[in-house]
Every structure is written in C-alpha cells, then in structure tokens.
Amino acid sequence: MQTFLVSTLAVAIAEIGDKTQLLALLLAARFRKPVPIVAGILVATILNHALAGWLGTLVAQWLTPDVLRWVVAVSFFAIGLWTLKPDKIDDDQALPARSAFIATTIAFFLAEIGDKTQVATVVLAAKYSPLWEVVVGTTAGMLLANVPVVLLGSRFSQRLPLRAARTGAAVLFLALAAWTAFRGLG
To answer: Is this model's pTM higher than 0.85 or not?
Structure first.
C-alpha cells in the first residue's frame, strides 16, 4: 500500500502545471466531453506508465543498491528543478479531428514521453515494488491531477495559483532527493 500511496502522491504533485495538465484543459475546451477525455487519459497513462515502470525495474536490476540510491536521489533532484519550469503547449499544435477519446489517448501518450511524470514513474519503479502498485499509483496520480481540470474546463484556469503549486512540488521533490541521498532507499 505504501508503494501505491507514494506513487500516487509523487505523480499528482509533479503533474501540477505540467504540459499534460494544460493538454487536458485544451481538450476539455475543444471537445466538451469529459467522459471520453478522462477515459483517454486513463488508457494513455496506463500504457505509458506501464512501459516506464518496466524500464525502471530493469534499471534497478542492473545497478547496485548504492548506485541506485544516488540515481534515485539525483533523479528526484532533477524532477524538483524541472517542476519549477512551467510547461507550455504550442498554440498552433493541431489536434486530430477524430473522437475525443482517440484524440486524448494519442495526445496524452505522446505528451507523456520523456515528461517528468514518466521519469518519476521510472524512478519509482526502480525503487519500489510491486510494479503494478507503481503503475496503478502513478495512474491514479495523473487522474487526481487531470480529472478536475477536465471537469472544470477553462472556467477557472486563470485563477489557479500554478506558480505556488509548482514551487511547493519542487520543494517536495528536492526534500525527497535529500532524504534518499542521506537516508538511503530502504
């Protein structure tokens, strides 16, 4: 249960102000169909994070525990710094003219490639087990962060204090990096 909770919290916090959260807002404004958009986010995240988690377990098998500890600490530090940089979506980025579900699934899967939440999933899978709890947790974190954005749409987007949220998330990841570096993984 700890694996699930840590994975959920880490990704939910990392997702605040992320480009995929902005993508959720854009899709909600364009399609105005929350159920297929949320379903597309769910499918894309499960597929993307399952692949990322699998990669994380492979990395964990190749590294000694001490090297893995420092890789995890440096990764958390990098994610913390990365969280401070706001993500933007290109205004001229065209979305497929297909259904909301297909457009969301494709767009979210591609947007997550190399994203900080995908990197966090790799790191979490390298550190925690079982893998399925990491994937379910990171997926739950994505949904926690994105479903409210989809449901509320653009109505309140200008009022959200995203800068303060990004700063808080960065501090949390920097604290996790320090804790991992000095206390270890286990």
So the answer is: no
pLDDT in tens, the chain (186 residues): 899 999 999 999 888 877 788 788 877 877 778 899 999 999 999 999 999 999 888 877 887 777 767 776 787 677 677 667 665 554 445 445 458 899 889 888 888 877 888 888 988 998 898 999 999 999 999 999 999 989 887 555 455 555 665 676 677 667 767 876 787 654
3-state secondary structure the chain: CHHHHHHHHHHHHHCCCCHHHHHHHHHHHHHCCHHHHHHHHHHHHHHHHHHHHHHHHHHHHHCCHHHHHHHHHHHHHHHHHHHHCCCCCCCCCCCCCCCHHHHHHHHHHHHHCCCHHHHHHHHHHHHCCCHHHHHHHHHHHHHHHHHHHHHHHHHHHHHCCHHHHHHHHHHHHHHHHHHHHHHCCC
